[in-house]
Design a protein that fits this description.
Number of strands of chain A: 4
Radius of gyration of chain A: 15 Å
Number of domains of chain A: 1
CATH topology of chain A: Alpha-Beta Plaits
Cofactor (chain B): FAD
Distance between the termini of chain B: 42 Å
CATH topology of the largest domain in chain B: FAD/NAD(P)-binding domain
Structural class of chain B: alpha/beta
Number of helices of chain A: 2
Structural class of chain A: alpha+beta
Number of domains of chain B: 3
Strand content of chain B: 25-35%
Order of helices and strands of chain A: EHEEHE
Strand content of chain A: 15-25%
CATH architecture of the largest domain in chain B: 3-Layer(bba) Sandwich
Region (Disordered) (chain B): 408-465
Distance between the termini of chain A: 39 Å
Domain Reductase C-terminal (chain B): 335-405
Pfam family, one (chain B): Reductase_C
Number of helices of chain B: 8
Helix content of chain A: 10-25%
CATH superfamily of the largest domain in chain B: FAD/NAD(P)-binding domain
Helix content of chain B: 10-25%
Oligomer: heterodimer
Largest sheet of chain A: 2 strands, antiparallel
Domain FAD/NAD(P)-binding (chain B): 6-312
Strand order of the largest sheet of chain B: 3-2-1-7-21-20
Shape of chain A: globular
Bound molecules: flavin-adenine dinucleotide, iron/sulfur cluster
CATH class of chain A: Alpha Beta
CATH architecture of chain A: 2-Layer Sandwich
Shape of chain B: globular
Number of strands of chain B: 29
Radius of gyration of chain B: 22 Å
Largest sheet of chain B: 6 strands, mixed
C-alpha cells in the first residue's frame, strides 16, 4: 500500500472509557495532555503540528491503546457558505 | 462487493462519522453521503462541559479526528426534514432530495429547553449540547456573572456547577430529587455526591424545582422563583434537565419514533409503528432505543459516548452486509464523568439494581468503588477516582457473577454490607417541570402515535444529562 503524506493537521481523541489514567501520555506530551484532579485526563484534540512527534510517542506509550490519531488525508469537510 | 450502492447517514457527529468510517472498513465502496444540520465538522461533546467551559480548550479544538478517508459527500448545515421510506429519499430543508439504498439515522438528542412561558426566552438562559451552546455559555461565564443557576443535578449539571466553582463563580443548583445523580446511581452514592457539591461551596437545593425564571425590563434573566417560593438571584441559568431525541424529521414517515428515540431491533434496524423492522433503515447513537439482550423486556437508550461508537460500528456492519450475518448490539454500558475534581466511571446499568455494596474505599473518601446487584447477580459498578479496577468488574458482570461479589480487595471494607441503593420512586410530575419523562415540546409538530407493540415497552434512559 502506498503511504500517504502525513496530513498537516494533527487531530486526536482519547477513549476515556478505556483510559486508565496511567499518565504515560502526560509524560510524553505534557503540553497536549494533562490531569485535572488525580485521575481525570484532559487533552487538546488539535494540538500544534510541532508536537506531532511527542503525540505519536504518547499514543504508542498508552498501555491501553486509548489514543486515536487521525489518519485521513482528505480535506476537512466544510459547510457551504450559504449554510452558515 | 454485492451490496448497497448509496448509503446516506443523517447526523454528522460522533455516531455518524464512526459509522461512515466503519462502512468503508467493511468494504462498502458505493456512494456515501453525510447530512448534518450543524455547520461544523464532527466534534466531540464531552469536553464542552469540562475543558471548554473552564477556558482551557476553545471549541474549534474539539474537532474529532477522522480515522481514515471515507470519500464522502458532506452536506453540512443542511437539516434533514423528512424521509420517504417507499421512495427511499431523504428531504433536506433547502429543498434537495437525497436518494439512498440504505439510511442510517444518527441525529442524536438535544437539550430539553426551558418553557418559554416560564422565562425560557430570557437572555442569560442557556442549554449545553452543541459547540455553539458552549461558546455562548463560556462567554457568559467568562463575563463573571454574580451567580449561576444550574437547573438539574445530573451529569451535565454537576460538570457545569463544578467548572463554575473552579472559576470562582457562585452557583446554585436545583434538583427535583433527594440527591444529585440519584436517578442514575441511587441515593446511597448520591449522598456522597451531595457532599462533593457542598464541600465545593455549591448552594445545592434538593427536592425542589424552579417554577419560573424572571427578567428585567430588557429581557435579561435576573432571578428564579423556586417551587417552595424562595428566590434565587442569578444572571445566568443553565438548563440541564434531560434530553429529547431529534426525531421530528421522521414524523409521518411510518417509523416508530418520538421524543424518546427511534425504536430499533437488536441489529440496529429501525422499526415501523407496527413493529416491523425496515430492512434498509438503521439507527445508532443517542437517538436509538433498542432491546438489549442483557436487559430483557425493555427498550434502552444510552446517551453515552461509548454506545454511540459501538452502535455505529454494529449498524455499519449490518448495513454493509445486509441480513446475511447480522450482528447484535449488546455492549455492556459504560461512561465516565469528571466533576468536583473526581473521575467517575461506570459499567453496567446501576438504575436496575436492587442492592448496592461498597467494595473498595469509603464513601467519605473521594475514592471508592460500589457494586450493584439485582436478584443476586452483579449488574453494575461505579468507580470514583479508581479507573484501573473497572475492567475487572466488567468481566465479572459479563460472566454473570453473583452479588455481592467476592473480590478480596486489600482496601475493601471488612464486611460486605449490601444496602438498598435508594433509587427515587417515580413521582407525579409537577406542572411544567421539565425534568420529567419526555413529552414532545409544545412547539414541535405532533409526534406519530406509534403502535403499542413497537414502543410502549418500558424505557430505560441512561443519559449523560
Ligand atoms: C455537554 C456534554 C457532555 C457529555 N459528556 C459525556 C461524558 O463525559 N461521557 C460520556 O460517555 N458521554 C458524554 N456525553 C454524551 C455524548 O456526547 C453523546 O453520547 C454522543 O455525542 C452521542 O453521539 P451521537 O452522534 O449519537 O449524537 P449527537 O452527538 O447528538 O449528534 C447528532 C448530530 O445530528 C445532528 N442532527 C439533529 N437533527 C438533524 C437533522 N434533522 N438533520 C441533520 N442533522 C441533524 C445534530 O445537530 C448533531 O450534530 C456528553 C454530552 C454532552 C452534550
Ligand atoms: S497513557 Fe493512555 S491510559 Fe494513560 S492517561 Fe494517557 S490515555 Fe489514559
Amino acid at each position: 500500500m502506498p503511504t500517504d503524506p502525513p496530513p498537516e493537521e494533527l487531530r486526536l481523541v482519547v477513549d476515556l472509557n478505556r483510559c486508565q489514567s496511567y499518565g504515560q501520555c502526560v509524560y510524553a506530551a505534557p503540553t497536549v495532555f494533562r490531569f485535572h484532579g488525580e485521575e481525570a485526563l484532559e487533552y487538546d484534540y488539535a494540538p500544534d503540528p510541532g508536537t506531532r512527534r511527542e503525540v505519536e510517542r504518547a499514543a504508542a506509550a498508552c498501555p491501553v491503546q486509548a489514543i486515536l490519531l487521525a489518519r485521513a488525508t482528505e480535506p476537512a469537510p466544510l459547510a457551504p457558505e450559504r449554510a452558515r | 462487493m454485492i451490496g448497497p450502492e448509496r448509503i446516506v447517514v443523517a447526523g454528522a457527529s460522533l455516531a455518524g462519522l464512526r459509522a461512515a468510517e466503519a462502512l468503508r472498513d467493511e468494504g462498502f465502496d458505493g456512494e456515501l453521503t453525510l447530512i448534518g444540520d450543524e455547520p461544523h465538522a464532527p466534534y466531540d461533546r464531552p469536553p464542552l462541559s469540562k475543558a471548554v467551559l473552564s477556558g482551557w480548550l476553545p471549541t474549534d479544538r474539539t474537532v474529532l479526528p477522522r480515522a481514515r478517508n471515507i470519500d464522502a459527500r458532506w452536506l453540512l448545515g443542511s437539516p434533514a426534514t423528512g424521509v420517504d421510506l417507499a421512495a427511499r429519499r431523504v428531504a433536506l430543508a433547502d429543498g434537495r432530495e437525497v436518494p439512498y439504498h440504505r439510511l442510517l439515522i444518527a441525529t442524536g438528542t438535544r437539550a430539553r429547553p426551558w418553557p418559554r412561558q416560564q422565562g425560557g426566552d430570557l437572555h442569560g438562559v442557556h442549554v449545553l449540547r452543541s459547540r455553539d451552546d458552549a461558546d455562548r455559555l463560556r462567554a457568559a461565564l467568562a463575563a463573571g456573572p454574580g451567580r449561576v443557576l444550574v437547573i438539574g443535578a445530573g451529569f451535565t449539571g454537576g460538570e457545569v456547577a463544578s467548572v463554575c466553582r473552579d472559576l470562582g463563580l457562585d452557583v446554585t443548583v436545583t434538583h427535583r430529587g433527594g440527591a444529585p445523580l440519584a436517578s442514575a446511581l441511587g441515593g446511597v452514592i448520591g449522598d456522597a455526591v451531595t457532599r462533593w457539591y457542598r464541600d465545593a461551596g455549591v448552594d445545592l437545593r434538593l427536592g425542589t424545582t424552579v417554577r419560573t425564571l424572571e427578567g428585567d425590563a430588557h429581557g435579561r434573566l435576573r432571578r428564579a422563583v423556586l417551587a417552595d417560593g424562595t428566590v434565587v438571584e442569578a444572571e445566568v441559568a443553565v438548563v440541564a434537565a434531560g434530553a429529547l431525541a431529534n426525531t421530528e424529521w421522521l414524523n409521518g414517515s411510518g417509523l416508530a419514533a418520538d421524543a424518546r428515540g427511534v425504536v430499533c431491533d437488536a441489529s440496529c434496524r429501525a422499526l415501523t409503528v407496527d413493529g416491523t423492522p425496515v430492512a434498509d433503515v438503521f439507527a445508532a447513537g443517542d437517538v436509538a432505543r433498542w432491546p438489549h439482550p442483557l436487559y430483557p423486556g425493555q427498550l434502552l437508550r444510552l446517551d453515552h459516548w461509548d454506545n454511540a461508537v459501538a452502535q455505529a460500528r454494529t449498524a455499519a456492519h449490518n448495513m454493509a452486509h445486509g441480513s446475511r450475518a447480522p450482528r447484535t448490539h449488546d455492549p455492556l454500558p459504560a461512561f465516565w464523568s469528571n466533576q468536583f475534581g473526581v473521575n467517575l466511571k461506570c459499567v453496567g446499568l446501576p438504575a436496575l439494581a436492587d442492592q448496592v455494596v461498597l467494595t473498595q474505599g469509603s464513601l467519605d473518601q473521594r475514592q471508592f468503588v460500589a457494586a450493584y446487584g439485582r436478584r443476586g447477580r452483579l449488574i453494575a459498578a461505579v468507580a470514583v477516582d479508581s479507573p484501573r479496577v473497572l475492567d475487572g468488574y466488567a468481566a465479572l458482570i459479563e460472566a454473570g457473577a453473583p452479588f455481592p461479589p467476592v473480590l478480596n480487595a486489600t482496601d475493601g471494607p471488612g464486611r460486605a454490607d449490601p444496602l438498598d441503593p435508594a433509587f427515587p420512586r417515580p413521582a407525579d410530575p409537577a406542572p411544567g417541570d421539565p425534568s420529567m419523562p419526555p413529552t414532545p415540546p409544545a412547539s414541535s409538530a405532533p409526534s406519530p402515535q406509534p403502535d403499542p407493540s413497537a414502543s410502549s415497552a418500558p424505557s430505560v434512559l441512561a443519559g449523560h444529562e
